[in-house]
Amino acid sequence: xxxxxxxxxxxxxxxxxxxxxxxxxxxxxxxxxxxxxxxxxxxxxxxxxxxxxxxxxxxxxxxxxxxxxxxxxxxxxxxxxxxxxxxxxxxxxxxxxxxxxxxxxxxxxxxxxxxxxxxxxxxxxxxxxxxxxxxxxxxxxxxxxxxxxxxxxxxxxxxxxxxxxxxxxxxxxxxxxxxxxxxxxxxxxxxxxxxxxxxxxxxxxxxxxxxxxxxxxxxxxxxxxxxxxxxxxxxxxxxxxxxxxxxxxxxxxxxxxxxxxxxxxxxxxxxxxxxxxxxxxxxxxxxxxxxxxxxxxx
Length: 298
Hints:
Blueprint: H1 18-31, H2 36-53, H3 63-76, H4 85-106, H5 129-137, H6 142-154, H7 158-163, E1 169-170, E2 175-178, E3 187-190, H8 193-205, H9 216-230, H10 239-252, H11 257-264, H12 269-273, H13 280-290
Antiparallel strand pairs: 1-2, 2-3
Helix pairs in contact: 1-2, 2-4, 3-4, 5-6, 5-9, 6-8, 6-10
């Protein structure tokens, strides 16, 4: 799971208090290039494990603790968490990967199975073009308009959008430099016609350096407010749903899967392929158009 280089732990790591070892591990992750979001996720998963086992020193932790923790969480869920079995298993899938990385780093295990993902196709939500237009029309200011248009026309992740600086915008070439991408990689996305028209006005008065001067919470709340104003189901309106919407519309309009993978910043084409099932109705129409006649003797 770890996609960054980690230095070896201190030689006396077995003598460390478990919480001190966690901080040392997270500092090593940060030095290796892990993002704050990734570090936060690792902290949550490993902290849950350490609270469950109740050990004081690193040297007391065993591989059996990892097994007991996984079984207990699968059977009983997380404190104050969802009781939905699939949600529990999905959370535990990621948490077990984080904990395994930590246990490997401190030398407790070399290999150990993580909890598998729940079976079944992952359900993705997307908006219709009409719903996106309704959000746009419900905008209260130019910032609302920019948020809706840029998410819909680029498919940026929320954190990527919020990391953009004004200097990353190249209006002349209609490109956006994405430096705050997942895994620390950089890519370019392109400025669509609606976003271009809004940016021309928006940048005249932007004070910078951030293009969107909001926190994730502020972005999330703006979209929820827009949904209510537009009469769109607010449970469907989140930054990542607009990313799904971009991907679905791009495929419908003829963009090939390899190009979409590059624009979305996916490492694996299999991640991009999940958007194909959102086009089921379009595929059905295309099929029925071709096979619209009953079998007949020729």
